[in-house]
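Posted in: Protein Modeling Q&A

I'm a second-year student putting together a small comparison for a lab meeting, and my supervisor asked me to include a predicted structure for Flavodoxin family protein. I've never done this before, so apologies if this is the wrong subforum. The sequence is pasted below exactly as I got it from our records. If anyone can share the structure token output, I'd also love a short note on what stands out.
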Amino acid sequence: MKILGINGSHRPGRGTAALLGAVLEAAQEQGADVEQVELAELEIGFCIGCNTCLGKAACALHDDMDILIEKMREADGIVLASPDYFSSITARMKSFMERTRPLHMVENALKGKVGGMVATAGLDNCGIEETMAAMERWFATHEMLVVHARPAGPVLGSGATATGFAGLDEEGKPIWRSVKRDAAAFACARQLGGDLVELAERLSGSRSCGAGSA
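Accepted answer (user: helix_wrangler)
Welcome! Here is the predicted structure, written out as tokens:
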């Protein structure tokens, strides 16, 4: 069982990386092999629209995306992470998504894998929902099965979305915190890690049963 985390933040090792790390840590505790990739540490060029991938599952460009594509093919689950930039994913994450076109145009090579996403932002209800939606659409394009985690108990939020907003002071001014202190988001992230492994195992078992009865 392999779960691959892909961080689209321009700043490796910061809040978004920590939130993604919580997902992977929980998945690892459930027995999965995990790996976290920082897009900021890779050399990935822009898709140039050459349409090579319309005829075969290959890209005309060759850079670190070659290695990342193989990691995605081998993974049972993929988790995307991005901070909110102008109510969407980062340009780095968008460029990565476009470079996965060869996995989609001929046949959906990632079909049936499980997926999940986490996001960070400065403020609540200020674009983070659209950031999550952009990642969810990427999963849908590749026919992946998206996990929407919810820890047991009362609803604390809509997904693993950590923000730096901690409320207002007596004068109505914002109180800021590190996104790493968003306890509800990190609880959801850990739930996501466990749920990803659980769903992937169920799917693996179903496929094994199907193969045995053929």
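A couple of things worth pointing out for your meeting: The beta strands are 2-7, 33-38, 77-83, 114-121, 145-146, 160-163, 165-168, 174-176. DSSP finds five helices and eight strands in the chain.
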